Structure of PUCC protein:
Amino acid sequence: MGIESRARRTGALGSSAAQPVSGPGAGPLSRAGEGQGEGRARSGEFSTLTPTLSRTGEGARRGSRGRVPEQPGAADGLGWPQIVRLGLVQTALGSVVVLMTATLNRVMVVELALPAFVPGLLVALHYAVQVLRPRWGYGSDRSGRRTPWIVGGMAALCLGGFGAACGTALAAENLALGLALAALSFLCVGMGVGAAGTSLLVLLSGGVAPARRGAAATVVWVMMIVGFAVTAPLAGHFLDPFSGPRLVAVSGTVSLVAFGVAALALAGVERRLPVRAPEPAEARRPFFTVLARVLADPVARTFTVFVFVSMLAYSAQELILEPYAGLVFAMTPGATTKLAGLQHGGVLAGMLLVAAVTLLARGTALASLRLWIGIGCAGSAAALFALASGAAAGSGFPLRTTVFALGVANGAYAVAAIGSMMALAGRGDARERGTRMGVWGAAQGVAFGAGGFLGAVAVDAVRLVTAEPVQAYAAVFAAEGLLFLVAVVLAARLDSAPAPDPVPLDPAFSAR
């Protein structure tokens, strides 16, 4: 789920993306009902999203076509050094994204005096491109290797980041040409985040031992947040005194360093895993055929809806929590910024909590990722309902405690959902994992892009029919809480129901 999504808020202090999240932001399924011997999963192993569920997926991998004998050390999978190296890729990704969603946003609004919707629209473009994630995942499935797609995605991301800075600087002289270049660059950033993020998660899902998935998800997402937190203040230091050429130089340096770090971190990692040769051209299934098979799996469909609903609730609070604290509790801008920092601290604490418990309680019910999804979503709902009722309690309401609790629950939900996504992607046919992960990544990206916007619009809409702004915020917080409760129900339905026939798609789209 790429937590690239909250880079906007992290840019001011740190962020989630934790898209975030953008936030990048940005899955484990069975073929139990196919009627084909190859890749059939044991239904008894499917009832819970625990790390042990991926054992069936390991068998499917060994039985899938196109495998060659494992290289030395491949059976061991990825150790902690390799997981940290993949986390460095997330750090590099986050360092570029935070400049796009925070620094350039501020420059356009303040230095260039452009309407706020201009950078908002550009950021929305980068989210909109996430719908192409399934196609990029399919491409990595066909090639048999993930590393080229990660490196290629990082190249597109870094070029897009540099191009966006050039477009922003150019807009000071030629507004139309500068914004056109910025728009193309944000599209490039979206494609890069999608291609790199999808293949990185698939690489993790196939290479990390089941018991380590929760902790591995925490490592890579915390390292993305580190990318936000380190780059924003360093870039800010070198941007003063501000000028267009200085912006271009700082962005170019960050992009170049980020690409170099990602490329070096990836070197040799995939060679530790079993090698899968590219599919022969005559054996390749068209993209829409594979997509139909993924959508035909009821677990995949349910998890897709779960990701969309939960991420919609997760992101809808992004633009309204600080205004709520200012309007209802008369907090100053500095105090609300500290409040946001407290929430992010809670997110980090929740992530670390799930990582520690799933590692230390291996083989017990406490190691179940589905359990932590439920706890995280239910806890988030409870905190949001408390915020909705907080205005009535007046100044005695424990706002800081509630916001911290919301962060902890959000963090627990996020890392458990990402770990489950990795597990579910690893359970299916090895030739479909990238497509599966892409479907869930697309749901996450679209939901996160829409959530912040819809949350703010909902507050404005409710304020049109109520005299008190407090009631508008309370209504939206309550709606977010209900969405999290729906997510709890959806997570509980992730079982081993057999897959029906593939969903029919228009044959006109069945080009390879």
Observations:
- The chain has 17 helices and no strands.
